[in-house]
Design a protein that fits this description.
The structure holds two protein chains of two kinds.
Chain A (H helix, E strand, L loop, with lengths): L1 H12 L21 E4 L9 H5 L5 E4 L4 E4 L9 H5 L5 E4 L12 E4 L29
Antiparallel strand pairs in A: 1-4, 2-3, 3-5
Chain B lengths: L3 E5 L11 E7 L2 E8 L7 H4 L8 H6 L6 H16 L5 H29 L3 H22 L8 E2 L2 E2 L5 H27 L1 H7 L7 H6 L5 H4 L30 H28 L14 E10 L2 E10 L6 E5 L1 H12 L8 H7 L4 H5 L1
Antiparallel strand pairs in B: 1-2, 2-3, 4-5, 6-7, 7-8
Classes of the chains: A alpha+beta, B alpha+beta.
The complex binds iron/sulfur cluster (2 copies).
Chain lengths: 137, 361
């Protein structure tokens, strides 16, 4: 009984463990992988993100300058952003809002003019055997 | 009294995941339990033949929603052994740190669900409140609450800054205080004891013969813990397996509680070692492709997990086979059930900490 009274008193004066969501939202920690975003003007359409993505949800087309990602297939692992040579890909620290309809993140940018290297830039989701092995750095 | 078959699961209030048991019952006493699995099979092992071996790290990480980091740890260690990669010590220490954080949040989740299985709702809420501390640590250090995605072949992707290390130490002190405060309720409360002590006894011999793993095995008095193999940085740390002799549901609960406290001590040891480690390297270079066969074992919160990997110099592996701890703990569960009352079945099913999506992959 004595311990119970102590507990009741303590709980009366300690702050609540819960917060009144959604009126009060906790700030995300720095570095939280909330939502994948791209600065399309920095993208050089190298296709590295598409080749490294374990969910195969990115498609890059160097000819048309199209960069597409299916956010519903993305597992928010952050591998693509790690490998992007120009840091065009990055994670915003807030969640993606829920959506009713399936939609693609689709951006069009300027593909680089000179094509000295022929990079297989399309995400070959059907033919993974053709992809080069991926040396990690 | 005639025998009746009562279906338990796949949907049941105590079950977080679907497993089906046909309970043959006579006078409310279970005579036999017949399991049926296969509700959440996803075919993740087959993906190994489609994704390259770097991408598989993220795939195996998603086999389990709770001990995800330890799955990828086991996979990476297997590939590293196959390719002869030397992982920097700092990376090994960080892997160990995250794996202990995973162990403690997994055990807290289980302790909460266990309390829930015998109807102790407020204990469940308290334990999950404490668990939030660990999830916050994961989110701040690795960018996600549960699926931390820190492992890559050759090392880790994230670093824990000195400021964060100090914060983790502070959180560990608060975490320990919370756990000590809840200890008397969890381990000595009359209602908890009356539902768990002497229920579902698995003797030492039965546990050994049926191949139990993890806390189920250690709750029956066998001191076996894969961490003693010294993988990652466990070889440099000082710990003993937590063992209880009684073999009942209460003993399994005590083992898991003891392991949470052990994880706190281990995290402190690891942070001490990290402070001494001068080499800042986080990942070794990976060259070539995996070739050969390897079996790798780690201790997950639920017990020993085993990976068999086979590669033949292609970017894709030929075979990934995962034996998860719950798979090993299903036969001991079936052996515990005969003779218990129907009302105790939910408590006993939870006492093995079933992780079905792990088991079915
Ligand atoms: S975060 Fe992971 S799954 Fe999502 S696009 Fe990047 S690599 Fe693919
Ligand atoms: S890796 Fe970066 S630069 Fe290359 S295609 Fe992807 S987003 Fe563009």
């Amino acid at each position: 009984m004595f311990r119970m009274t102590l507990n009741v008193l303590r709980n009366l004066f300690t702050p609540k463990a819960t917060r009144l969501y959604p009126a009060r939202v906790r700030e995300p920690f720095a570095g939280y992988r909330g939502q994948l975003e791209i600065h399309i003007e920095d993208c050089i359409f190298c296709g590295l993100c598409a080749r490294k993505c374990p969910a195969l949800c990115i498609a890059v087309d160097i000819k048309t300058g199209k960069w597409e990602c299916d956010p519903f297939a993305c597992v928010y692992c952050g591998i693509c952003a790690d490998h992007c040579p120009t840091d065009a890909l990055f994670f915003a620290d807030r969640h993606r809002a829920p959506a009713e309809k399936h939609s693609l993140m689709s951006y069009t940018g300027q593909p680089p003019k000179k094509k000295e290297k022929s990079v297989a830039a399309t995400a070959g989701s059907e033919a993974p055997a053709n992809r080069k092995s991926a040396p990690a750095d | 009294m005639a025998r009746t078959v009562i279906p338990f699961g796949p949907q049941h209030p105590v079950l977080p995941e679907p497993i089906h048991l046909k309970l043959v019952v006579e006078d409310e006493i279970v005579q036999e339990a017949i399991p049926a699995l296969g509700y959440v099979h996803r075919g993740l092992e087959m993906l190994a033949q489609k994704r390259d071996f770097h991408q598989m790290v993220q795939v195996v990480e998603r086999i389990c929603g709770i001990c995800s980091m330890i799955h990828s740890l086991c996979y990476c260690q297997g590939i590293e052994e196959m390719m002869g990669i030397e992982v920097p010590r700092r990376a090994r220490l960080l892997r160990t740190l995250w794996s202990e954080l995973h162990r403690s949040h997994s055990h807290l989740l289980w302790l909460g669900l266990f309390a829930d299985s015998f109807g102790f709702e407020s204990l469940f809420m308290q334990l999950w409140r404490i668990r939030e501390r660990i999830l916050d640590l994961n989110e701040a250090t690795a960018g996600n609450r549960v699926i931390v995605s820190v492992n890559v072949i050759g090392g880790v992707r994230a670093e824990i800054s000195e400021e964060q290390q100090r914060w983790i130490l502070g959180e560990m002190a608060g975490f320990e205080r919370d756990m000590n405060r809840i200890r008397s309720t969890l381990l000595e409360d009359y209602t908890v004891k009356s539902r768990t002590v002497g229920k579902g006894v698995l003797t030492r011999e039965m546990a050994y013969e049926l191949g139990a793993a993890g806390p189920v095995l250690r709750g029956s008095g066998i001191a076996q813990d894969m961490r003693q193999l010294g993988y990652a940085a466990y070889g440099d740390l000082d710990f003993e397996p937590v063992v209880e002799a009684a073999g009942d549901a209460y003993a399994r609960c005590k083992v898991r509680f003891g392991e949470v406290m052990q994880s706190i001590r281990l995290v402190r040891q690891i942070l001490g070692e990290l402070a001494k480690e001068t080499d800042p390297a986080l990942a070794a270079k990976v060259k070539g492709r995996p070739e050969g066969e390897v079996v790798c074992r780690v201790e997950q919160p639920r017990g020993e997990c085993l990976y068999y990997l086979k590669g033949s110099g292609k970017p894709q592996l030929d075979r990934v086979r995962v034996r998860t701890p719950t798979f090993a703990n299903v036969p001991p569960l079936l052996a515990m059930l005969p003779g218990v009352e129907l009302a105790d079945v939910p408590v006993l099913v939870l006492s093995i900490d079933p992780c079905i999506s792990c088991t079915e992959r």
